[in-house]
Design a protein that fits this description.
Elements lengths: L23 H13 L1 H4 L7 E2 L8 E8 L2 E8 L5 E3 L8 E5 L5 E4 L5 E3 L4 E5 L1
Antiparallel strand pairs: 1-2, 2-3, 3-8, 4-7, 5-6, 5-8
Length: 124
């Protein structure tokens, strides 16, 4: 359940556990990724590699690899929408968006549109 109110720090402030499990699918996807993707759950996977973007001051992107499997995470850490590219050529190929199962073919010329505070979790 998402908690949509600010909790009181020193007073008893009960959380209402009724309603819709809005974040269930999101956390289920992340837990499955952690358990099943070898770039995360294998000790010999690479450490996260920072990926250069055309907006490094506002976007944090990193990649983990294990053999031919990759996990790419792109985070827009700004309050405005951005159009970015990954110009270094470190990441190329077809990826699947973890959250909506869409496919994306990444090249150094591809422009990726991110909403404010948006993120992508891409796997192959």
């Amino acid at each position: 359940m998402p908690n949509l109110k600010r909790l009181k720090f020193f007073d008893k402030d009960p959380i209402e556990w009724t309603g819709n499990n809005q974040l269930h699918d999101f956390y289920r996807s992340l837990n499955l990724l952690r358990k099943q993707h070898p770039a995360i759950n294998t000790a010999s996977a690479t450490q996260p590699i920072r990926i250069a973007t055309t907006q490094n001051d506002q976007v944090f992107a990193f990649l983990r690899r294990y053999e031919n499997r990759q996990l790419l995470v792109i985070l827009n850490l700004s309050p405005q929408p951005l159009a970015i590219q990954l110009p270094g050529g470190q990441v190329q190929g077809t990826f699947t968006n973890l959250l909506d199962a869409s496919s994306i073919f990444i090249t150094s010329q591809l422009t990726i549109d991110l909403k404010a505070w948006d993120y992508l979790v891409l796997t192959n």
